[in-house]
Every structure is written in C-alpha cells, then in structure tokens.
C-alpha cells in the first residue's frame, strides 16, 4: 500500500506541474527563441501540433501510472484476501497440515513462483516435523525421496533465521545440491517462520515465473504469509496442549470418581457385612438374609457404575468423529445396559452439529452421560429423552425422564450416596455455561444445560 500511495502522489504532482512546465516552454520559445514563427498560420499550426503531441505523451504517462497503480492495488487486494482466508483457517477447526498447505499454496500463487515449500520444526526443535510442497505433484514428490533434514540453505534459514533472496541458489556457498529427480531451481526467496523470538520453520519460493529474480515486494508478501504460518503453528500447539491437559484432567476426575464410588461401596459393604454377621450370631437368619440381599444389590449397582464409566471413557468425540455420532452410539449402548428407553431429538433435525470447541464438546457429552447415569441409578424411569437445540449462540441439552422425581430444595444423601448433580453444574460453568434442574416428586426430572458456542473459560481446570 505504501508503493500505491507513492505512485498516487507522483501522479498528482505530474498532472499539476507538467502543464505548467509545458506552457512555460511554449511561452519561452514564442517570446525569445522564435518570436516571428508564431505570427502566421503555419506557426499556429505548428504550435497546435506540438500541443497535440505533448498532450498524447502526457496522457500516455498518466495512464501508465494509473495502470501500474491499479495493478498494485489488485495485487494488494489479492494478498489481503489470501491473508484473510488464511486467518479464517487458523481460527477454524482445520488440521494444522491443511492450514499450512493453504498458506504455501496461496503464497506461491500470489507471488508468481513455480515452486514453494514450508517446513516446520518439532516443538522441541529436534528436527523437521513436516515438509509441505507446492507446485510439485505427489508422484514427483515421492520420486525425490525422504524429507530434507535441514542442511544447506535450509539450515541458513532454520538455524540462523536469515532471509535469503538469490538469483542463483546453486552458487551460494552453503548450497549442497539437490537429490536425484529433484526439479532444477535457481531463483530463491526464503524467510523464517518466527514466533516469540523462536524459529518455528521456514517458508520459501523458487523459480519466479515472470522475472529472473524476486524483488522487495515479493519478500514483504512472503514475510506476511510466514507470520500467518507462525500463528497457525502456535495455535495448533496451544490447542494440542489444552487438549492434552483436558484429557489428563478428565482421566484424573474419573479416577477420583471411581475411587470415591468404590470407597463408598466398600464402606457400605463393610457395614452390611458386619450387620449380617451380628444377626447370624444372634440367630436372626431372616434379617441377616435381608442384609445380604442389600449387599447383592450394592454389588450390582457398583458393577453397573463401572460399566457406565467404561462406556463413557470409550465415547469421546474426535476430529474424525462428530459429536452427534458419538452421542448416538453412547445412547444405544446405554439403552442396552440400562433397559431404559432412551431417545435423542435434535433441532434442527437435519444437519445438526453443535460446532463447539473440543473442551466444550467434552463437557457437554459428560454432562449428558452423568445425567443419564442419575436416571438409571435414582429415577426408576422407563423413558428418558435427550433433546438438543442449537440457537445463534447457545447449545441447549435437556435430559427429561418420567421417573420418581425429587424435591431439589430438600435433596439429601440417602443410605446409598448420590453423585453427579454438583459435578454437572461445575462442568457447565467451566466453559461459561449454566445448568438448571427442574423436578418434583412423582413428576420426573428435567436437567437443562446451556453451553455457549464461544465459551469463556472461567477457570483453568476441568472440574474434578
């Protein structure tokens, strides 16, 4: 845009000064050099011809500047559009390799190079993690052989962070040649990909198509694409770290929950076993049998809990597996295990997809799973419905059953402990959402979770 502004300033002064200079020269010639020439019609005809020729040259000069300025504006617009699309890719859900491939493709096409490549280093800096090419077919890439190791000119950029702009890269003292089946390359433009002072990789183009070499404008353009590549790499690594943290904390939370559940069951079993032993000692077999029957019921409940936990751990949505498909599979298996008729309803019915962040999807899935677990353990329901609704900014999940219901204000621990309600609320709040419970004795229970599509994380930990 700076070059465009400079061209416009030059055009302005050209249109102002050129006519003044021209007419000053005409006046000088008429008054001093050829005073008698312009006193007859041949002289006036000559003057008209000179003015016409000067006007043609002036118009040509003006339109040349305008055409050059328009070309620069169109190039800038194409670059801005490409950078905008690259920015959208970065904040989207695309895989890092896809985003970086688009960056190198767009940079190559915009600058006008025959070949392009982008390499980025492993997070620990131990070597090249991926090497993406543009302008080379898959067959040509396969024929070249294994990935480069970062020697030669690559090392100059990857290790030293230098910019390179060469007319003939083969003459550079650090050039080490090409492997067999590699296309011939001469002109080179290479820039490092840097974030927070660390070199993450490099982006380079070879073989300028309409010129023997690259210029300053090409280098500035490529540097802007390298900045977007750095953002994409840092964004992907941040998401990877957040995802790993979420998985670790989820495993820790479930381990604690299983531990607490088993501890409660063992305490309950110990109490009942002691009671049965005492009743047998006092020759009350009927009452002892009742205590042993309660032990059996506790064991069955514990077994059902463990199976439910295992099913929940297996049911996790991933980038290759949509949230809705994961939930449907979970409901099918939960229905088989619990014997409760479970139905999933979505609005809109067609093409429903929550489009939540990975963390928010995980929390919503766990809320539904724990809600269904409460239905199985406490509601005595025969029918449960999971109703998902998407609006402009919120995903709402309603879990409704036709069970016994309870009074939320008067809820208290029973002989066999209840889990889940407070954890469900903490899960919703951890991603900026809310959870409400509507229930009445004899009228079933409704759990309503609302999760924003762009949640504000209110703490750094998933609820434990």
What labels would you give this structure?
disordered C terminus; Heat Shock Protein 90; Beta-Lactamase; five-stranded mixed beta sheet; 10 helices; 464 residues; single chain
Describe what this molecule looks like in 3D.
It is a single chain. With 464 residues, this protein is an alpha+beta fold. It has 3 domains: 2-87; 93-232, 2-Layer Sandwich (Beta-Lactamase); 315-464, Histidine kinase-like ATPase, C-terminal domain (Heat Shock Protein 90, 2-Layer Sandwich). Helix content is 55%, strand content 16%. The protein has helices at 2-33, 41-91, 96-111, 138-144, 153-158, 216-281, 285-314, 323-338, 358-379, 421-430; strands spanning 113-121, 128-134, 164-166, 188-195, 198-208, 341-347, 383-390, 394-401, 434-439, 445-452. A hairpin with a 3-residue loop joins strand 7 (383-390) and strand 8 (394-401). Helix 7 (285-314) runs antiparallel to helix 9 and helix 8 (323-338) packs parallel to helix 9 (358-379). The chain is elongated.
What's the helix and strand layout?
Layout: H1 2-33, H2 41-91, H3 96-111, E1 113-121, E2 128-134, H4 138-144, H5 153-158, E3 164-166, E4 188-195, E5 198-208, H6 216-281, H7 285-314, H8 323-338, E6 341-347, H9 358-379, E7 383-390, E8 394-401, H10 421-430, E9 434-439, E10 445-452
Parallel strand pairs: 6-7
Antiparallel strand pairs: 1-2, 1-5, 3-4, 4-5, 7-8, 8-10, 9-10
Give a summary of the structure in a few sentences.
The chain is of the alpha+beta class. The protein has three domains: 2-87; 93-232, 2-Layer Sandwich (Beta-Lactamase); 315-464, Heat Shock Protein 90 (2-Layer Sandwich).
